[in-house]
Amino acid sequence: MVVGAGGAGLRAAIAAREQGKRTAIVSKSLFGKAHTVMAEGGAAAALGNTNAADSWKVHFRDTLRGGKFLNDPRMAELHAREAPERILELEYWGALFDRTEDGRISQRNFGGHEYPRLAHVGDRTGLELIRTLQQRIVALQQADAAEFGDPDERLAVFAETAVTSLVREGGDDGRIVGAFGYRRVDGGFVLFEAPTVILATGGIGKAFRTTSNSWEYTGDGHAQALRAGASLINMEFVQFHPTGMVWPPSVKGILVTESVRGDGGVLRNSRGERFMFDYVPDVFRSQYAETEEEADGWYDDPTRHRRPPELLPRDEVARAINSEVKEGRGSPHGGVFLDVSSRLPAEEIRRRLPSMHHQFRELADVDITAEPMEVGPTCHYVMGGVRVDADTAASDVPGLFAAGEVAGGMHGSNRLGGNSLSDLLVFGRRAGLGAAAYVDALEAGEGDSTPATGVLERAAAEAVASSLAPLKQGAGENPYAIHSELQDTMNDLVGIIRRGPEVERALERLAALAERVDVLSAPGDRVYNPGWHLALALPNMLLVSEAVARAALERTESRGGHTRDDCPEMSAEWRRVNLSVRAVDGRVELERTPSRTSPVSCSHSSTGTSWPST
Amino acid sequence: MSERTFRVWRGGPDGELTEYRVEVNEGEVVLDVLHRLQATQAPDMAVRWNCKAGKCGSCSVEINGRPRLSCMTRMSVFEDDEVVTVTPMRTFPVVRDLVCDVSFNYAKAREIPSFTPAPGTEPGDFRMRQADVERSQEFRKCIECFLCNDVCHVIRDHEENKEHFSGPRFLMRVAELEMHPEDTADRRRTAQEEFGLGYCNITKCCTEVCPEGIHITDNALIPLKERVVDRKYDPLVWLGSKIGRRPKDTPIAPNVRRPEEGRGTA
């Protein structure tokens, strides 16, 4: 059973089905609408089509450097090695990426990637990815229809069905036996009996006020994994994308793709200065240009110029924008200017960035071919997630797997742009294979693979009662109001820049909200009732928010997507530590675990850079 | 900030328009206002949406009678005192409020013979020119909002045609595959005989409502009609059929059509 129908979920389901397993895809939204469609820039893979010097080792090194060395190195290695195969496979399933002159897949520049590396389709790459996987699933269903007489025989999609809890047998080594949920369309409850569950539920961004994430990003998989006894790691690391829209207020947070900068766009403050030159940290100093002339020369002649600082990793750019605004050099609506109009001909902008052109024209009355955009940081991605085995995507709980954004480790403390779409493909497939192998082993073992008597029934009875509670509590709390308070709390107190006392205050507020969540009230009946759906998702957002806040308070350094104003330095000691989170009796507990070290030599690199000490 | 009058369809097929007075702020889109209604007056109002950025195609409704994405319809397109009426898409059965059962579309998608690369090729073999992929790329911009299928008169007012007509969205999908440089299947006969291409009389309503600005009629449907005609009246094909050499068409996959399709959910 795969929970989530974004890139990771669909790729996992394809892999499991190709192993001959009967696979269910359970998705909160309609088939093909998952958050993956919003990915714009591309999928990073060292194909070497645009610059032959690229290789998986350079990609691996860039990924670790971008993650400030907290990545699970085995995951980063598998990702860099396998991404090219996964992209070519998509092409073989019908995807149409933009082309190079010689007819191969074109690759674009992106922050933190040494070479042009992102396979893309204009600025709608995520849509291409999801549609291709969706259509691949249809192709497999057609094959099953021909063979078995039923397209759903081995691959069935349960659309608009939300999973609310996982079912596990008792005891420390109790295994996953299924999951419980409800259908949005009619409010009917569903109980899945399954020997494995692959979580591919995406992220947690809806816990924050300003976010590029859709309503689905309520941390369901993170929370359910915690409740089932799995560990999450790196939860303090939340990526704020440097460029979200800032005006008008109703679109605040909507993503402005990094491709704008990859294709030549520059950031300026209210004085017209390209301020990013002032924010190049030492670890990146050797790779980034010091003057505008050098930076501008890089686009055409990257061997004799260093990169423009606008293409630093996202955490650096987001912090820089934040401090420009704070110091009074922001744009009229509290962002900075992102200008591509003075850098590329109008026709070229419309060709390379069609959906940005459309988005600004329709939603903000801005013509990006003629004037700069106003942009500012927006909550975009959580690096933290379920702790998994790199090779199989297995969690600590037997039968529970995780892939994509809900899994932790791959990106360390900060994800490079473009590494998410490739992550989904590489680890989605590995999760499908891992789960299939687990089922084989289970069936080959002497033990009975059917669930212990009564486990599913008891879990279902409990879940039904708690799910129905909000519909019965007439005068309880309004879920929309609680959600709004939660978003303000996380945004203001555990946001892009954090301070110890503020995070403590956030934890107090979260505790108070947790009590109010017990008495949520959703008027109406069970048929497509969004108030009720929000009421069922809020406990997940709260639990995950607490995990983020506790880890953020504990880590007394600044690294990647975790910036502590009161501990601004990166520390060599913390480099060796992952914070691991477990839920004990509904409370979040932290543990320091040693970070995994790299089995791969990193000495190979085109710039010959060795590892810095922090 | 101003206060505006919204009339929203509430209930199932037998529902009715309910009037609300609601606050509207500068820069907002219709979906923002629907969300405000949920948060303040109608917590159980069913609205389907995801990305709120015009990229996922979930929030399709009809606004003052016109099929639109509610997330891309600015309030500023209406007169200051204009009443805004929001109803579910008319071509599909209403589940509740603004949410429809769109399973018709997923059923039609499953009938189309999938991408078929040449046997003997493998991943990495393809070399395609940008100019050659651009035609299909335009159609792959489709966000599957189904507004084109909603507006198309062939099925909007004729339930009986649904069985025989896949709608602009999926005829365009056929065109996309036919124009894919590496595809080897032939769907021209099926386009006409199974998917109802002949029902389309190129009124271009689909093109007019497409939020992605895809030239559905001019670039997909008319060229597909031309290919069908080429195929049907090709003298060599005619001769071949007379001497018993039927050209190879890719049939729709067996067993993908089921009696209950077009109704209910899976």
Number of domains of chain A: 3
Return the structural class of chain B: alpha+beta
Low-confidence stretches of chain A: 603-614
Total domains of chain B, how many?
A: 2
Please tell me the CATH architecture of the largest domain in chain A by its name.
3-Layer(bba) Sandwich
User: Biggest sheet of chain B, in brief?
Assistant: 5 strands, mixed
**Could you say what the CATH architecture of the largest domain in chain B is?**
Orthogonal Bundle
**Most extensive chain contact?**
A-B, 79 and 67 residues
Order of the strands making up the biggest sheet of chain B: 2-1-5-3-4
pLDDT averaged residue by residue of chain B: 93
* Count of DSSP H/I helices of chain B: 10
Shape of chain B: elongated
User: In which order are the strands of the major sheet of chain A placed?
Assistant: 6-2-1-10-17
| Quaternary structure of the protein | heterodimer
Give the beta-strand count of chain B: 7
CATH fold type of the largest domain in chain B = Fumarate Reductase Iron-sulfur Protein, Chain B, domain 2
Number of helices of chain A: 15
Beta-strand percentage of chain B? 5-15%
Strand and helix order of chain B:
EEHEEEEEHHHHHHHHH
Helix content of chain B: 25-40%
As residue ranges, the low-confidence spans of chain B are 261-266
